[in-house]
């Protein structure tokens, strides 16, 4: 289908879509094969083939599309259908929201617009003509370059767009509405000028400038680092409030959830600015990894998403605080992807089957997919990996590809077979690496033995055999100094190396090690695995204070905290005396004393592991005890370091500059607010008033919401007073009130479940808007394990009730909520475990669920084999 012409006559109730398709029979297709087009929710008005109108005997309408039994090898098919955008609550296809028409076609939304072969390997050049009311929809946008437009009778107007680059239909986009633009330009390295525009609703115009700056940064980075130039004369970004996804990379017309576009100091936090920079970059980078080169089928989804996430992270690393950004990536991976990989919803990076592809926009596809690409870059080295990317772009531009195609290119550059590495694509589960070592003092030789423990394959189609795991490591002396060594078989001495483990059990020999070493393993988190090494508490303290790898300093600090909280949980269950934390407090004091040299890393080193990771790391599964003992350690850190926390807070608060988003300013604000949080938790009688004052005096949302967060877990009148003020102050700003919902959903207060139930009746909460659902229900079930897994089962019933309500209008969002039932954790208490399983089973047995929700619930009830 090399060419398609579409004409839209927009109307809320009856939008008329006329299509003209030029169709050619594929060489592998038999002349007896019928033409099968996908289509859902369409009212067919007319159908003609090569100008001849077809009657009902010439075709068949099915529940999923249109079948024409006999067609020639080449022909033009014309259809006219009617759709109702105002009634499209699924937010897939063409829908009307707040007076704005917009589309969401990935993964299979185009079939809700017109009849088409809705697959990613069908590439077509699009010509689009849009008719709309000139007063209500003065802005008309689609993919490609605008080639015409003008006035029509009865107060309507039109615009014509042509996209010269063939693309799959999931990248089609249309927007029509009233907007105000932030406009700019970008001059490419080849000298072309690209017109840029960020379109926002008129009342949001003051908050759109940063998104334009983010786009310009991303375009420059892609040229400088990856050698990729933009290819059209214009680039549009549109912000809409109702959107299932964060954003969509449609060719030249990105459609964004407004939360990833709108920002100013009063209504956006530092994290919001970072998210905008990251997501704008991500969607722009798709122009080459997803658009110019797209995927052959949806089983290759991790190629376009994983590779683009990798490119996005390279971009963000170059914005500053590289180590801290990597730490946040790892924290996200563990909290979401490792959990997914350990439960019944685990699947490989390349899924083997699906009922609804929308269910596979998962942490595994995005996060683990990016880590697979990153491992490939580690194995090849930065220079050769970039050579491989250049060859990949040259060879496959304008074509559809598979993950094997990508690895074949890398194999050519590497000069060795990467076949064992391909097992990462088709194996689910998180490998565990056990590291053991033996030092030969006389010969100055260190033997390191790495053993892989991988989850058993979930099906016969998952490959067996060892994975290729690149392990980056270095050695430290007992005094914390880096040691040099030479890997057996290599000539050069080094202080850091990559050991490529390709066997289940493999020993590496390091020569020239002058002192008994401390191993700093899996530096930079070089592979998405669980690293297990025998390390004493003293070794952890040395790593925290001295390791030149910032991520491993953080890893050691997290492990020290996990050990302390685990010991506290055991003591609590057995009614024993709590273990001493003095040595750990002294270590963290040493970290905090040097905070001014790297405030961003200091924040990470002094932030305790989140409850999700602790519940994964501590057995038996008991989220209430984990929370209680984590809070207890938080109180001890606050009390034990109160003098330093107070000094830091006063210093940063008194020398604060006028708000400007920058990596440096954001780091200082985060450290200041972390200090306030520890102080309030350690001594509420003294510091609650200080938090209230910080809230009142704040000149930006980061400081104001940080002060509110410091009060959020307390049962104190100041909390309610401040929460009520926040609700009233930000009533005109829905995205800010989403933070108010989330704050209450994740509170450690025991009445959080009741608060969430009450908030579902708040005027701000609207189940038709995905942002509201994710902010309240999503936050509660994903970020409040003690609340969601309440032994009474109230959290499970709350989620089941919301799934029923949301599934009736938006199955994609309902299915994402249902994934919370797919956690890997099992209660020791059989009664509570049965209560959870009964809730899931009762929900699964109810009729009329969408196929998206049915698939998630069915898979959730499947048990996962243990390691």
UniProtKB/TrEMBL annotation:
GO BP terms: namely: proteolysis
Family annotation (Gene3D superfamilies): 2.60.40.1840, 3.30.2010.30, Neutral Protease Domain 2 (1.10.390.10), Peptidase M1, alanyl aminopeptidase, C-terminal domain (1.25.50.10), tricorn interacting facor f3 domain (2.60.40.1730)
What keywords is this UniProt entry annotated with? Aminopeptidase, Hydrolase, Metal-binding, Metalloprotease, Protease, Zinc
TM stretches of this protein:
none
From what organism does this protein derive? mine drainage metagenome
Family annotation (PANTHER family): PUROMYCIN-SENSITIVE AMINOPEPTIDASE
Q: Which InterPro entries match?
A: Aminopeptidase_N-like_N, Aminopeptidase_N-like_N_sf, PepN_Ig-like_sf, Peptidase_M1, Peptidase_M1_dom, Peptidase_M1_pepN, Peptidase_M1_pepN_C, Peptidase_M1_pepN_C_sf
The record's family statement is: Belongs to the peptidase M1 family.
* Annotated Peptidase M1 membrane alanine aminopeptidase domain residues: 210-424
Q: Which cofactor does it need?
A: Zn(2+)
Every Peptidase M1 alanyl aminopeptidase Ig-like fold domain range: 429-532
Q: Where is the Aminopeptidase N-like N-terminal domain?
A: 88-171
**Residue intervals of the Peptidase M1 alanyl aminopeptidase C-terminal domain:** 538-861
In the record, what terms sit under GO molecular function? aminopeptidase activity; metallopeptidase activity; zinc ion binding
Q: What is this protein called?
A: Aminopeptidase N
């Amino acid at each position: 289908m090399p060419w398609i012409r579409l004409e839209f006559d927009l109307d809320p109730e009856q939008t008329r879509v006329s299509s003209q398709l030029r169709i050619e029979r594929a060489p592998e297709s038999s002349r007896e094969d019928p033409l099968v087009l996908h289509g859902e929710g369409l009212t067919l008005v007319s159908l003609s083939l090569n100008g001849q109108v077809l009657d009902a005997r010439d075709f068949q309408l099915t529940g999923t599309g249109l079948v024409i039994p006999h067609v020639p090898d080449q022909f033009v098919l014309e259809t006219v259908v009617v759709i109702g955008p105002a009634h499209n609550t699924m937010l897939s296809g063409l829908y009307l929201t707040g007076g704005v028409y917009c589309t969401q076609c990935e993964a299979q939304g185009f079939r809700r617009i017109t009849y088409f072969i809705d697959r990613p390997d069908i590439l077509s050049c699009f010509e689009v003509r849009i008719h709309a009311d000139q007063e209500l929809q003065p802005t008309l946008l689609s993919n490609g370059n605008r080639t015409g437009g003008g006035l029509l009778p009865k107060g309507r107007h039109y615009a014509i767009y042509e996209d010269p680059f063939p693309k799959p239909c999931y990248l089609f986009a249309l927007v029509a509405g009233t907007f105000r633009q932030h406009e700019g330009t970008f001059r490419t390295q080849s000298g072309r000028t690209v017109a840029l525009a960020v379109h926002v609703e008129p009342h949001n115009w003051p908050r759109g400038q940063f998104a334009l700056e983010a786009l310009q940064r991303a375009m420059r980075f892609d040229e400088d680092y990856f050698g990729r130039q933009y290819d059209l004369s214009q680039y549009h970004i549109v912000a809409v409030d109702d959107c299932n996804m964060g954003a969509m990379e449609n060719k030249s017309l990105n459609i964004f959830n407004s939360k990833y576009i709108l920002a100013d100091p009063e209504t956006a936090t530092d994290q919001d600015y970072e998210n905008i920079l990251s997501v704008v970059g991500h969607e722009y980078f798709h122009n080459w990894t997803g658009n110019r080169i797209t995927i052959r089928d949806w089983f290759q989804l991790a190629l376009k998403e994983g590779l683009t996430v990798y490119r996005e992270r390279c971009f963000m690393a170059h914005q500053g605080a590289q180590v801290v950004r990597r730490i946040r990536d790892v924290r996200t991976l563990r909290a979401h992807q490792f959990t997914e990989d350990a439960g019944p919803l685990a699947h490989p990076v390349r899924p083997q089957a699906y009922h609804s592809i929308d269910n596979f926009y998962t942490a595994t596809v995005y996060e683990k997919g990016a880590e697979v690409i990153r491992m490939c870059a580690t194995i090849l080295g930065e220079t050769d990996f970039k050579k491989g990317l250049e060859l990949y772009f040259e060879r496959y531009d304008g074509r559809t590809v598979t993950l094997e195609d990508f690895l074949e290119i890398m194999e050519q550059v590497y000069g060795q077979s990467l076949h064992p590495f391909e097992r990462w694509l088709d194996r689910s589960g998180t490998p565990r690496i056990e590291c053991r070592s033996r030092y030969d003092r006389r010969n100055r030789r260190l033997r390191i033995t790495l053993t892989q423990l991988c989850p058993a394959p979930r099906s016969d189609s998952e490959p067996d055999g060892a994975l290729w795991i690149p392990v980056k490591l270095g050695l430290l002396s007992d005094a914390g100094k880096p040691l040099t060594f030479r890997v057996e078989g290599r000539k050069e001495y080094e202080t850091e190396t990559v050991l490529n483990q390709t066997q289940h059990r493999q020993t590496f020999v390091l020569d020239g090690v002058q002192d008994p070493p401390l191993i700093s393993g899996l530096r930079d988190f070089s592979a998405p695995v669980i690293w297990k090494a025998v390390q004493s508490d003293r070794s952890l303290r040395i790593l925290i204070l001295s390791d030149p790898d910032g991520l491993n300093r953080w890893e050691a600090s997290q492990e020290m905290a996990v050990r302390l909280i685990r010991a506290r949980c055991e003591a609590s269950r057995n009614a024993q005396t709590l273990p001493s934390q003095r040595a750990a407090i002294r270590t963290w004091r040493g970290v905090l004393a040097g905070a001014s040299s790297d405030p961003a890393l200091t924040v990470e080193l002094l932030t305790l592991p989140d409850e999700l990771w602790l519940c994964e790391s501590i057995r038996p599964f008991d989220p209430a005890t984990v929370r209680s003992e984590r809070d207890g350690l938080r109180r001890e850190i606050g009390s034990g370091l109160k003098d330093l926390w107070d000094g830091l807070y006063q210093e940063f608060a008194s020398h604060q500059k006028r708000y400007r988003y920058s990596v440096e300013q954001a780091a200082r604000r985060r450290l200041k607010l972390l200090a306030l949080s520890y102080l309030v938790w350690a001594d509420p009688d003294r510091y609650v008033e200080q938090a209230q004052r910080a809230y009142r005096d704040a000149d930006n949302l980061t400081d104001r919401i940080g002060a509110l967060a410091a009060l959020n877990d307390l049962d104190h009148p100041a909390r309610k007073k401040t929460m009520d003020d926040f609700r009233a102050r930000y009533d005109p700003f829905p995205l800010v009130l989403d933070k108010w919902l989330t704050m209450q959903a994740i509170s450690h207060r025991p009445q959080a479940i009741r608060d969430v139930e009450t908030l579902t009746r708040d005027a701000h909460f609207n189940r038709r808007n995905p942002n509201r659902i994710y902010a309240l229900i999503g936050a509660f079930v994903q970020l409040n394990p003690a609340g969601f897994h309440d032994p009474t089962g109230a959290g499970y019933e709350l989620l089941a009730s919301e799934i029923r309500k949301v599934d009736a209008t938006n199955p994609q969002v309902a299915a994402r909520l249902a994934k919370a039932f797919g956690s890997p954790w099992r209660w020791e208490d059989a009664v509570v475990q049965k209560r959870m399983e009964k809730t899931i089973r009762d929900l699964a047995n109810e009729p009329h669920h969408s196929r998206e929700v049915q698939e998630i619930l069915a898979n959730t009830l499947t048990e996962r084999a243990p390691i």
